[in-house]
Design a protein that fits this description.
By secondary structure, this protein is mostly helical. Helices cover about 75% and strands about 0% of the residues. The protein starts with 6 loop residues before the first helix and ends in an 11-residue tail after the last helix. InterPro entries: MFS_dom, MFS_trans_sf, Sugar_transporter_CS.
Length: about 475
């Protein structure tokens, strides 16, 4: 039994039929999913490897020399951390030199957290501000390659080259500049990529498509995290070069294997700055879109707050403490623990939400599960507790990702401006990711530890659950 065409669906179909290929047949849709999955995998590998392993280690290496030099240059941070715990518990009375070294350790802890916050927050803010602009420009692009392909191709290749440059950043300031440019380039490619789902995929198949593309993101996270962690001792920061090559190959394959129709002949409204600026966040006027946007921002704010300092938590919060090498190897193993649950949930949630015609209940369940997971390491700062937390988080993310992506496409106020409004949706995620490192660094600096970081993350994700509640979702009618 077919679903009647609503006014929104009719407008969507009329628009996409004039500017893009619409994948109604199985073969082109399968091909599209396959190469979208590969590109999603490549970009997700970059985020997982960089945020989890490469960037924290790179900043730690840059900051270490500022605090531990001369006779302290060969100091064992793992042993010094355990000494600090023994001193705090009253088991050991430090001598003058140990007291001095413990003070250096405290300053180093704050400096590396602040350094990581500076790099990640600066880049996320830049992306957040410019993301909708790129969406608008891709909506207005007229070329033989179509509207989205030029942005995906050129930005993806630029991002690949910049990844190589990031590897050789000689200072924190240069690293901030290079990583901001890299993250912007990859997001410039990612926004039009996501808009191709709205352009090309029928509404009743979007949950299925976003399930597959979310699976690509998950697999990419596995490859990036495990690869960087396992190979860090062998290739170190040169893993950036591997990532750059992967992104370049995946970008070229997606664009060449999923050619869009030329948009040269498509009419477009004359450009004017005032309506452009006024329309920047106009989608937030729509009730459902606005609440979903707020919920996503809080969800990723909470999640990112809990994960941004993972490498440092394993060295300084978990008992017993791990060395930098042990922590680098453990981060991807932790991530891997939740993957089976994520994959199962991703495979089911998108399709089930299509079948039921409901997205909201899935997002609520995912947010509740995520909030509950944050309480586990808050109560028990041990490695087994972190594994339990990761498993529950993996399940929550598997439910959340495909349904949230599909729901944003469903609630678009104007399908003709999908690039702009989906760019604004990505801003919600970027906002959470931008604020999280700063919040985590402030918590560590103020409290002198990591426990309160989990408390803050729990509260934020709980708020995400509350803010999705006002969304009014109507089950589609069936003929």
């Amino acid at each position: 039994m077919s679903e009647p065409i609503t006014q929104e669906a009719g407008e969507d179909a009329r628009w996409t039929s004039t500017v893009a290929v619409h994948y109604d047949a199985k073969k082109p849709l399968s091909r599209y999913i396959r190469w979208y999955l590969l590109l999603s995998l490549a970009v997700s590998a970059v985020w997982a490897a960089t945020n989890g392993i490469l960037m924290p280690n790179q900043i730690q290496l840059l900051e270490f020399g500022s605090f531990f030099h001369g006779a302290d240059a060969g100091i064992d941070l793992q042993a010094l951390t355990e000494l600090g715990r023994a001193v705090a518990s009253g088991e050991v009375t430090p001598d003058a030199d140990q007291t001095r070294q413990l003070a250096l350790l405290s300053d180093f802890e704050a400096a590396r957290a602040n350094g990581l916050a500076l790099v990640t927050t600066t880049s996320a803010i830049i992306v957040m501000v410019l993301q909708p602009v790129i969406g608008v420009l891709s909506d207005r692009t007229r070329s033989r390659l179509g509207r989205r392909a030029p942005w995906i191709l050129y930005a993806g290749l630029i991002g690949a080259v910049l990844l190589v440059a990031v590897r050789y950043a000689p200072s924190l300031v240069v690293l901030v500049v290079l990583w901001s440019a890299t993250e912007l380039a990859l997001n410039v490619a990612g926004n039009p990529l996501q808009a191709t789902v709205a352009d090309r995929v029928p509404r009743d198949r979007r949950g299925r498509v976003t399930s597959w593309t979310s699976m690509g993101a998950i697999i990419g996270g596995i490859i990036g995290g495990i690869g960087a962690g396992a190979l860090f001792g062998l290739v170190g920061l040169d893993f950036y070069l591997i990532l750059g090559l992967l992104v370049a190959i995946a970008t070229i394959l997606f664009v060449t294997r999923n050619r869009d129709e030329s948009s040269v002949e498509v009419e477009r409204e004359p450009f004017a700055w005032k309506p452009f600026l006024l329309g920047y966040a106009s989608a937030l006027k729509a009730r459902n879109y606005r609440w979903l946007w707020i919920s996503r921002a809080l969800f990723f704010f909470g999640y990112s707050t809990s994960t941004v300092l993972n490498l440092y938590m394993l060295q300084s919060y978990v008992r017993p403490a791990l060395s930098a090498a042990e922590a680098s190897a453990m981060v991807p193993i932790l991530g891997l623990a939740g993957i089976p649950f994520t994959l199962i949930a991703v495979a089911i949630s998108g399709r089930l939400s299509d079948r039921l015609g409901r997205r909201k209940p899935f997002i609520i369940v995912a947010s509740v599960l995520m909030a509950v997971s944050m309480a586990i390491p808050l109560i028990s700062p041990t490695l087994p507790a972190l594994f339990a937390q990761v498993v529950l988080t993996g399940l929550a993310f598997g439910i959340y990702l495909p349904v949230d992506n599909a729901m944003f496409i469903d609630v678009l106020p104007d399908p003709a401006r999908a690039g702009r409004d989906l760019g604004l949706a990505i801003v919600a995620m970027n906002l959470g990711q931008a604020l999280a490192p700063a919040l985590a660094a402030v918590v560590v600096s103020v409290t002198g530890g990591y426990q309160a970081v989990w408390g803050a993350a729990l509260v934020l994700v709980a708020l995400a659950t509350l803010t999705v509640a006002p969304i009014r979702e109507r089950k589609p009618a069936r003929a």
